[in-house]
Every structure is written in structure tokens, then in C-alpha cells.
Design goal:
Layout lengths: L1 H7 L3 H6 L6 H12 L2 H14 L1 H6 L9 H14 L5 H9 L3 H37 L3 H49 L5 E5 L6 E5 H4 L20 H18 L3 H8 L4 H15 L2 H18 L9 H9 L2 H39 L5 H23 L5 H25 L5 H22 L9 H22 L6 H11 L6 H4 L4 H37 L2 H21 L8
Antiparallel strand pairs: 1-2
Helix pairs in contact: 1-9, 3-9, 3-12, 3-13, 3-16, 4-8, 4-14, 6-11, 6-13, 6-23, 7-8, 8-9, 8-16, 8-17, 8-18, 8-19, 9-14, 9-16, 9-17, 11-18, 14-15, 14-23, 16-17, 18-19, 18-20, 19-20, 23-24
Length: 574
């Protein structure tokens, strides 16, 4: 840690981006470890246990991290080309360094910090629920212990500490994956019918194995209790898919964007994404292994009453004492790898975009590093305070990914693809989405009696408010300075509505950019289903559904060939 502290202390670029000198495989492995959070693993296990592959399709909303396909093919390299430290700093490249750019930058920084605080609350509850069950202590105390441990090494060693500990923690996660998958494969042969529990009702749900493992999502399902919100399944999938494409087109934020800002080149931005997706695919056989073991436990003993407790129950009942401690350590590592990424990336917004930009522009390197460590402590403290009022991790996950996430992503999408969109539109749209997401969660949803429509409301209200704010703010204020827009377009080269800017470029440059844009767009259309099929293959493997596995394997091979010709072979040319 002393060595990492010295490397991180050379400057804030080192502290938050590792001097942009880390190899693609380190950044990709770190991204995988950061995505494999404990709370999310508990939710994914609960959904696959309760709903089978339907639970997988529900997690198009966030757990599949499907936007990585867009980051891999085009928007990851657009992020890297900006050569900034945070998404908020990026605003001045897009909207200029005057009042317009400053307002957009401040709003972006504040929104990202609020999202980080909410995320820490969510992860604290999930981590605490898991660790508290094993240690026999209060969930809140267990969550505090986990986050404080991650806070110590993150505050001291910065981004170097984050990525290197993520690699070590990622190795532990793979130990857990291999062990639990092998055990489940050897132990469980599911019967043709079985029963599981649904949260919010004492009624058991009976599934046939064929329906539970079907790779074709239905139009409707009939579930009681808390999962009745998914009964209009086709509609749920449509707006989850729409939300994911918005998220992918937006370019990501927080620790996701941070890894692309830290990449050495466009090529390495693509490779880190490919490695990230490949490693993340192993998460799905793991959660499926836990799910089938949970079903096996219910067949031999009694049905587990709360699907969110399948993970700790299986570890407690199936894992030998000598291995149990190692497995618990693996999942604690998964929790901390997410905590440290959020802590480090969110502190950058305070240091770079508020403190250095507006409060103390002449601050010394030591003062900036001190502010980074103080910001980490404050953000963690606020996240822990808000976590005390959360009991259902699926509930807060839905709000983060649908309500708050979508409300903030609408302006992030428009900034890339529409030349007329300006900083005032971004600020008003972001502020409107943020306020609408909070009011929807705290005021509107509590009075909605029909739970089937709650997720639609959670998605639509913040996104509509955000979109209207973007449009009104843009058209009621002057367009961004054309010189600023021209510079942005030449640097990042995005596709979309840029005709006003593109026509000023030489014909050969226009042709080159348009060729790259068309190729990237086609590659993204292949990459997204390619990622879905890759993840589903692991699920079918653990369910021992060989016919489905064979179909998916054939589709995967065809998509892989298409991805090679549309994207991979061009990596060396960028």
C-alpha cells in the first residue's frame, strides 16, 4: 500500500486515472470486478431462482450491463478521445468554458455525486445483508464494516489501489465461480416440476423445468406478490431494452467512464471492453449455480422464503466449513471491488470539477489529494446514512437503474448526437430528471395502488421530465459557439445530427468519419445480441439444457464471425 500511495500521490491524474498508463487487460479486469457487486449478485440469484431465464431478461435493466456492447464498438473510444478526467469536465469540451459550459459542468458533477451516494447506499444494504447473516450481527453494522474497509485503501492509494486490488479480488471471485459451478453441476439434477417462493406472498409458485429454462421470453406472465410488476413481460422488456440503448448511447458515467478516460488508445478502449464482457459472462453461470442449489435445498428441506436469501442460505448449507470462509471472503471481495470504484470515481467530481475548477484553482497538488481523500470520506458517510432506510435491495436497484439512471441519461445521450443541444439544455434536463426521480420514488409511487405500473412510472416520469427540460432549455437559449462545436466534433467524431459542423470539413475527412460511423453502428447492432447470447450460454450450461445450449452456441458463432468482420479486424487501424 505504501508503494501505491507514492504512485498515486504524484498528482490527481495519477490518483484518479493512473496516469493513463495502465494496460487494457488491467482496466478490463478491474471493470469486471467492479460490476460483480455483492448486492447485485444476490438480486441476480434471486431472480434466476424465482423466474429462471425470465429473471435474466429482467436484468436487461442493468444487471447484464448490456451497454458494454456500445462502449466496446464506438462510444468507449469517443470517451477516450476527449482526454478529460470526468464526465463533468467533458462538458467544457462540448459546451465551452463560458457560463454555459460551467453550468453544465457543475450540474453534471452534482448529479454524479448524488448517484454515487445512492449507489453506496444500495451496495451497503446488499453487502450488509450478506455479511450480517454469516457473522450474526446487525446488517447495518456489517455494511458499515465492509465500506469502511474499502474506504481506507481507496483513499490512500487512489486509482492504482482500486484497479490492482480489483484484479486480486477478481481472482478471488473466479475461485468462487469455479467452485460453486462445479459443485452445482455435480450435485443437482432438477426435476420436471418444482416450487419456489415469491416475495410479498406466502403462496408458492410452481414451475415446469421447460418453462423455467425457456430462452424465449413470453409476452405475459402471471406472478403474485412483489414480482407481479413483471407480469406485462413483453412491455417490460421493451422499455428495459430502450433504457439500455439510451444508457449505451450516453457513454456511461462514474467508474465505467473512468476506465475509458484512463485507456491509452482507441484500440485499447475496444480491447478492455471485450475483455470486460468476456470476464463478466462468468457471473451468470455462478448465479445460476446458486439458483439451482437453492431449488435443490427447497426440494430436500423447505422452500427458501425470501429469494434474496438464496445466496447466503446455499453457502451456509452446502459449502464445507473449510471452504466456506474462502467463499465468504470471495464475495466480500466482490462487494469491496464495487465500493472502491464508486468511491474513487465520485471523489474525482468534487476535486476536479468543483474544488479545483471554482473554489481553489491554484491549489497545490497536496491540497488536491487531501480533498480527494476528504471527499471519499464524506460521500461514503452520506451513503451509509441513507442506507439505514432501505430494506429491499431489488426495490432500490430498480430505482437506481430505471428512475434516477434514466432521468440522468437523457441529457447524456443528446450531448453526443445533436449539434444544437447546448449546456443550458443539459443543465435543465439533468436537474429536471434528478428532481423527478426523487419525487417519483418518494411521493408518486407510495400512492400508486397497482404495482404492475410502478416500474413504468418510475421510468417514464423522470425520463419525460428530463427530455422536456432538455428541449426547453436548448431552444430558449442561444446555440453553443460554433467554434466550440467544431472542435468537439473534430476531436471525438461522433455520428448523429452534425450536418452543420460536418459540411465545414474537407471532403476526404468527411468520408473517413462517415465510413467509421457506419461501421461502428453496424458493429453495435451485432455486439449487443452477441453479448446476450454469450451470457445465456452460461445459464443453459448450468441448467443442463443442452438443446438450448446448442442453439445459442450456433447463434454465438455466427455473431462472433460478424463481429470480427464488422469491428475487431479494424482495431489495429484506429
Amino acid at each position: 500500500m505504501v508503494f501505491l500511495q507514492r504512485k498515486a500521490s504524484t498528482g490527481i491524474e495519477s490518483y484518479f486515472l493512473g496516469n493513463r498508463n495502465l494496460p487494457w487487460w488491467v482496466l478490463g479486469a478491474s471493470g469486471m470486478a467492479s460490476n460483480t457487486d455483492l448486492a447485485g449478485t444476490m438480486i441476480l440469484t434471486a431472480l434466476v431462482y424465482a423466474l429462471g431465464t425470465k429473471g435474466f431478461f429482467i436484468e436487461i435493466r442493468g444487471g447484464i450491463v448490456l451497454y458494454l456492447g456500445c462502449l466496446m464498438t464506438f462510444i468507449g473510444k469517443w470517451n477516450r478521445r476527449a482526454q478529460v478526467m470526468t464526465v463533468a469536465e467533458w462538458m467544457q469540451l462540448r459546451f465551452g468554458t463560458g457560463r454555459e459550459g460551467n453550468i453544465a459542468r457543475i450540474i453534471s458533477a452534482v448529479a454524479n455525486i448524488i448517484f454515487a451516494i445512492a449507489s453506496i447506499s444500495y451496495f451497503a444494504v446488499g453487502g450488509g445483508k450478506f455479511l450480517g447473516d454469516f457473522l450474526g450481527i446487525d446488517d447495518g453494522i456489517a455494511g458499515i464494516l465492509l465500506i469502511l474497509l474499502a474506504l481506507v485503501y481507496t483513499a490512500v492509494s487512489g486509482f492504482y489501489g482500486v484497479v490492482l486490488t480489483d484484479i486480486f479480488q477478481g481472482i478471488l471471485i473466479f475461485v468462487a465461480i469455479l467452485y460453486i459451478c462445479f459443485m452445482a453441476f455435480q450435485t443437482v439434477n432438477l426435476p420436471e416440476t418444482f416450487s419456489i417462493s415469491i416475495p410479498g406472498t406466502e403462496q408458492l409458485q410452481q414451475w415446469s423445468l421447460a418453462e423455467w429454462s425457456s430462452i424465449t421470453p413470453p409476452i405475459t406472465i402471471d406472478l403474485p406478490g412483489d414480482y407481479s410488476i413483471f407480469n406485462l413481460f413483453g412491455g417490460v422488456m421493451l422499455f428495459y431494452t430502450f433504457k439500455v440503448f439510451l444508457e449505451g448511447a450516453a457513454g456511461g458515467g462514474g467508474y465505467v467512464a473512468q476506465r475509458y478516460f484512463a485507456a491509452k488508445s482507441d484500440r485499447e478502449a475496444g480491447l478492455l471492453s471485450l475483455f470486460w464482457i468476456f470476464l463478466l459472462s462468468f457471473r451468470w453461470p455462478m448465479v445460476t449455480a446458486f439458483a439451482v442449489l437453492g431449488i435443490d435445498y427447497g426440494l430436500k428441506n423447505q422452500v427458501i422464503s425470501d429469494p434474496e436469501l438464496v445466496l447466503p442460505t446455499v453457502i451456509a448449507e452446502y459449502i464445507p466449513v473449510g471452504i466456506k470462509g474462502l467463499l465468504v471472503a470471495c464475495f466480500i471481495a466482490a462487494a469491496m471491488s464495487t465500493f472502491d470504484s464508486i468511491i474513487n470515481s465520485s471523489a474525482a467530481y468534487w476535486v476536479k470539477d468543483i474544488y479545483q475548477a471554482y473554489l481553489q484553482p491554484e491549489a497545490s497538488n497536496q491540497k488536491l489529494l487531501t480533498q480527494g481523500r476528504l471527499a471519499s470520506i464524506v460521500i461514503v458517510g452520506l451513503g451509509l446514512i441513507f442506507s439505514f432506510n432501505i430494506t429491499n435491495i431489488n426495490d432500490i436497484w430498480g430505482w437506481l437503474t430505471l428512475g434516477l439512471g434514466t432521468g440522468l441519461f437523457i441529457p447524456l445521450v443528446l450531448r453526443w448526437y445533436w449539434w444544437r443541444f447546448n449546456g443550458y439544455g443539459f443543465a435543465i434536463g439533468t436537474g429536471g430528471g434528478l428532481v423527478a426521480a426523487i419525487l417519483t420514488k418518494g411521493v408518486i409511487l407510495p400512492v400508486v395502488n397497482n404495482s404492475q405500473f410502478q416500474e413504468y412510472i418510475l421510468f417514464l416520469v423522470p425520463s419525460i421530465c428530463s427530455f422536456l427540460g432538455c428541449i426547453l432549455g436548448t431552444f430558449l437559449t442561444p446555440a453553443t459557439n460554433l467554434e466550440t462545436i467544431n472542435n468537439f466534433y473534430r476531436v471525438t467524431r461522433p455520428f448523429g445530427f452534425w450536418g452543420v459542423v460536418r459540411k465545414n470539413l474537407p471532403t476526404n475527412i468527411q468520408a473517413k468519419i462517415q465510413t467509421e460511423n457506419r461501421r461502428d453502428f453496424m458493429a453495435a447492432l451485432i455486439a449487443v445480441p452477441w453479448q446476450l447470447v454469450l451470457f445465456l450460454m452460461g445459464i443453459m450450461l448450468m441448467m443442463k439444457q443442452w438443446d438450448n445450449f446448442g442453439i445459442l452456441l450456433l447463434i454465438f458463432i455466427v455473431l462472433s464471425i460478424g463481429l470480427y468482420f464488422a469491428w475487431f479486424r479494424y482495431l489495429d487501424k484506429i
